[in-house]
Design goal:
9 strands; about 20% strand; Rossmann fold; 7-stranded mixed sheet; 11 helices; alpha/beta; two-stranded antiparallel sheet; about 40% helix; about 280 residues
Length: about 280
């Protein structure tokens, strides 16, 4: 029977052959999952012999990852800023860029945090729950057309003690939304079909395509959210969108044509245009 270090090294080598990025790190996470321990605790258990029942569990986990199933789906959870989110195939896996989106919004708002926020296409609930967590006085409504995604987001609200802070609404974008908001936030589908077809297997074969790909070269949903937002914004309110890197010129023109006043493009950590902000003039 093999010990922890031997299984770890064999798993790393196997992942390398299968083209898994960061094979050592992935192997560590998989072993930690199978052994029900913290990843760093593995280093204190290298000499521990793994019994056959646990090896069977590990073999199944390794098989799933070697088939390029995303690590987050296998682990079943992931950190998102100060939250821990349940993650499964019902929704898109939150990206580091979306954590950055939250950080930039909070910095932009400063002490003038919104009192009510609409999150369109909430998925796992990452944006809505993080904003509720940091904007303690805000009422947050999270919308998704997928009932499965809404169920996952609701589970995450309960998990993070935010059930009383966020309301969930089954709606295709604005179709069932009522009322007006200080801010409308969204990380909608914005990949092109070509980007989807050339994406990593983890994305193309496991994550929900409808949460990633949009018509009009990825612009369709971004445009719809921005155009209709004026009907749902309070005076002085704003729209904040996570976008593709090629969409800002088109979004800037749409926003100016619609009469939005303060319009900004924010870059992500890699220096690419990733976040688009447009505010209505105070009346």
């Amino acid at each position: 029977m093999a010990n922890v270090l031997e299984v770890l090294n064999k798993t790393k080598d196997f992942f390398e052959k299968k083209g898994i990025e960061k094979p050592r790190l992935n192997a560590e996470w998989i072993l930690a999952k199978g052994l029900a321990c913290n990843r760093l605790d593995l280093y204190l258990r290298f000499e521990e012999v793994i019994n056959e029942n646990t090896l069977e569990v590990l073999r199944e986990l390794v098989k799933r990852r070697s088939n390029h199933e995303p690590l987050q789906y296998i682990l079943g959870e992931m950190p998102f800023i100060d939250l821990t989110l349940k993650i499964d195939k019902r929704a898109l896996i939150p990206r580091p860029e979306t954590e950055e989106f939250i950080e930039k919004l909070l910095k932009f708002w400063g002490n003038n945090k919104p009192k009510n926020i609409l999150d369109l296409g909430t998925g796992s609930g990452a944006l809505a729950l993080a904003l509720a967590h940091y904007c303690e006085d805000a009422e947050v409504i999270a919308v998704d057309k997928s009932t499965e995604a809404l169920a996952l987001a609701n589970e995450n609200a309960i998990r993070n003690n935010l059930k009383d802070r966020v309301s969930f609404l089954h709606s295709d974008w604005y179709s069932e939304v009522q009322g007006t908001f200080d801010w409308i936030i969204s990380n909608p589908p914005y990949l092109t079909k070509n980007e989807w077809e050339t994406a990593q297997p983890e994305v193309q074969h496991f994550e929900p395509q409808q949460a990633l790909v949009a018509e009009k070269e990825g612009l369709a949903d971004l445009e719809k959210i921005l155009v209709l937002a004026q009907n749902y914004l309070n005076s002085g309110g704003g729209v904040a969108l996570e976008t593709g890197i090629a969409h800002h010129e088109a979004l800037d023109k749409i926003a100016k044509d619609l009469g939005y006043t303060q319009i900004e493009s924010w870059k992500d950590l890699s220096g690419r245009n990733r976040y688009f902000i447009a505010l209505l003039k105070n009346l």
